[in-house]
Every structure is written in C-alpha cells, then in structure tokens.
Design brief:
The chain is of the alpha+beta class. The protein has six helices and 17 strands.
Length: about 325
C-alpha cells in the first residue's frame, strides 16, 4: 500500500495537557507516548484495530539510529514487530510484516512513504519525545532517564552529524582526528588506550597520498555507541568502526553482506531469519574474531563491556538490486 501524497506533512496533535507530549500520525499508523511506553496503533486490512507497546527507551534508541543513519541498509527492526525497510528513495513502515506469527494471522500492516516524508515525521517525534538529559546515542550508564512527563528537550544530542571521512581520517580537507579540543575526550572505558599517532615520512609530493592514524585512539574518543563512522573509503568499500556498549538498539536485517572484525573485548550476536525472525544462530565474537552476516539474516548484538568493532560495508548503490536479481550472492564466501 502506498501512503497518499497529501500526507507529506508532519501530522501531530497539540501537546497532551498532562504528559506534555504530542501524538503523531503517519499514514495508517498512530504513535503515542506516555511516561514509560510508546504505543503504536494501526488497523488490519479487514479493519480490526491493532496496537503494539514498546519501552520508550528502547523505542527512542532505535528511532535515533533510524533517523541518524538515513534508514540504513535494508531492515531496521525496532523489535520483533515494528520497523522500517529502506528502498533508498522511499521507506516501508511496517508492523508485524516480518513477524512470522503476525503475518500468518493476517494482522500485519506495511505502508510505503517517500523518504523525506517519513524522515520529517520521525525527526519531529524524536525531538518532541526526547527529554532534557537523555541522550539516545549514549550508553545507559552515561545518560539520564527517558522516562516521565515532558521535561525540556535535547536537540543538540539528537542532531549530531555522523562522522564520515571522504577518503581517510586525518587527511587534508577530510574528517579530522578526535581530540579534547574537538569535544571528544577519551571514554571512561578506554583510559588505557595509547593516544600516540604513527610517524609519517612521505616523499615530497606524496603528503596527501601516504597516510596513517591511530584507529584505536580515534575510537577511544567516541562519544556515542552503536553508530558507525566512515574512517576510510575506497570506491564503494567503507570501513565503519564503532564502539559498542549494552545492546544494539535495533535488529538489523541485511540487504547485503556485512563483515565484522572484533577489535577489543567481545560481542554476543543473536541471528535470525530476515523475513520471519526465526532464530538461526548465536555468535560469540572475541577480540581478533572475524564474522560475516549474510544478506538473508537479521542480527542484534550484546556488548557486556564497551568494545570496538570494525564493520566493513559494500556501499555499492546497485548491490541490493543485484542480490534481488540473483546476480550477486547473499553469502560472503563459498568453499
């Protein structure tokens, strides 16, 4: 089902007199929050009213990633019921469509929206529902509470720009190294990470061609969790390292293969079927381990300590369509 074009603007109520939050409507989906929960409502194809409830902290952390990542690659499942699928000019919004039980029962709903339309609604919702002191990008130990009645806002934290190198971190006219002066102190978990940079001795004329930097030091100063940066880019090959703590706020459904290299500590991954959520594998990655998530799975990670993870992405804009047509494989390697 395609959402009508007349719904292109953000549809929201006035703030609730008691709670202080706005309700939002996007197509056939309604969104409401109270002091503890997000409530999502819709009607089935035969007119039955349905609803789904999520802890508001879980919802806001997932919403933050969906907004900041531009709906990412493929599926962003907020949980096992609700989420989005990125088609790169439009986005599917669904409830139950990739939950095997709900799909079989016929109580799911999926609608497609122009990217600008769903982005505007999600951004407005995120801004209105995020209270002062709560940073949905931060680890739970490093931020305040999302609960309670409306209490200010935290626009600065939810509108951070992603740090995306064009070629490589530290090159001239590219993403600069993190530092205290740039507002990026060393995180509490990485106080023992050396900060020295490698020595570079390029021949004259090659100063902007020969380059290196301390990736561990760069990551030790990350102010956010589960938010990959681009640190080096070669054509469509993106190196996207990130620091992880607590739980990946989304269940990511791949539309392409992703490679993971565990740089420090460990992450536990639950992997399931992308279309139904049926469990497929449990992966425990420790420092030095490499794994790949195939294009037919969904995954969610659990990081007991703040860890460093390198995600290697193929950013080719045509890859998803090549996989759909069977021209590229869903798996990383064949033996």
């Amino acid at each position: 089902m395609n959402a009508p074009t007349e719904l292109a603007k953000v549809i929201a109520t006035q703030p609730d007199r008691t709670l202080g939050y706005k309700d939002f409507q996007l197509g056939s989906f309604g969104f409401r929050r109270d002091e503890y929960f997000t409530h999502i409502s819709w009607k089935t194809r035969d007119g039955r009213p349905m609803s789904h409830t999520m802890d508001v902290a879980v919802y806001l952390r997932a919403l933050m990633r969906d907004v900041a990542w531009g709906f990412f690659y493929g599926w962003v499942n907020f949980d096992d019921v609700f989420g989005t699928v990125n088609h790169y000019q439009s986005v599917d919004l669904y409830a139950g469509s990739y939950n095997g039980t709900m799909k079989e029962a016929g109580i799911d709903l999926l609608e497609n929206f122009p990217t600008d339309q769903i982005r505007a609604t999600f951004e407005a919702m995120l801004d209105d529902w995020t209270n002062e002191g709560f940073d949905p990008f931060a680890a739970p130990q490093e931020t305040g509470t999302p609960y309670g009645r409306k209490n200010g806002s935290n626009t600065a934290k939810i509108t951070r720009a992603r740090e995306l190198a064009k070629r490589c971190v530290g090159l001239k006219d590219d993403l600069q190294l993190r530092s205290d002066a740039r507002g990026a102190p060393v995180n509490r978990a990485f106080a023992d990470v050396p900060q020295a940079q490698p020595e570079l001795h390029p021949e004259p004329g090659f100063e902007n061609e020969v380059h290196a930097f301390n990736l561990f030091g760069f990551l030790s100063r990350s102010q956010v969790t589960w938010n990959p940066s681009f640190t080096s880019v070669v054509k469509h090959s993106f190196m996207c390292p990130t620091t992880e703590e607590h739980i990946l706020p989304i269940i990511h459904g791949n539309d392409r293969v992703e490679w993971f290299f565990q740089m420090t500590d460990e992450i536990h991954w639950d992997c399931g079927d992308k279309n139904t959520g049926k469990p497929m594998a449990r992966v425990i990655m420790k420092a030095g381990d490499m794994a790949a998530m195939p294009a037919y799975c969904r995954h969610q990670g659990y990081s007991p300590k703040r860890s460093m993870l390198l995600v290697w992405e193929n950013g080719s804009p045509s890859l998803v369509y090549e996989i759909q047509k069977g021209e590229s494989p869903e798996i990383p390697v064949s033996f």
